Amino acid sequence: MKKIILILVPFLFFGVIQAQETVSFSFNHLALSVKNLNESAAFYNEVLGLEEITNKTKIEGIRWFSFGEGKELHLVSIVKEPVILNKAVHFALSTSNFDNFIKRLEEKKITYSDWPGVTNKVTLRADGVKQIYFQDPNGYWIEVNSVVK
């Protein structure tokens, strides 16, 4: 009897493992709590060039923007709890027009920095990617980096 149990246990265990389905994910959206919805919407439209799209929730105080390829940014002004931020809490965007984007920030007088915080300095990572950090009107950190070719 013991031999039968010892033989059957691995098969039962394997069957349980095999029955579990793999779950995969794809990025859908990022939601940010904002104080002034119109100011934030203008920032993301004018500075990052994001197109405003239909807010499918139809809830007032929320606006949606498209990153493209089905990826979205949702700005939410209806939640009033404070948000505590630091540079480690950021989202990153890549662009093949990195130098042109730096010019856009400078034209709009938006301060950017490298990771340590040196103003108007670009970080050059060991892999050759350039990156900068700046903040939106609510203090959220945004990284913009170059695309490795």
From TrEMBL:
Membrane-spanning segments: none
Domain VOC: 26-147
Gene3D superfamilies: 2,3-Dihydroxybiphenyl 1,2-Dioxygenase, domain 1 (3.10.180.10)
Residues in the signal sequence: none
Pfam family for this entry, one: Glyoxalase
Matching PANTHER family: LACTOYLGLUTATHIONE LYASE_GLYOXALASE I FAMILY PROTEIN, PTHR46142
Name the UniProt record assigns to this protein: VOC family protein
Taxonomic path: Bacteria, Pseudomonadati, Bacteroidota, Flavobacteriia, Flavobacteriales
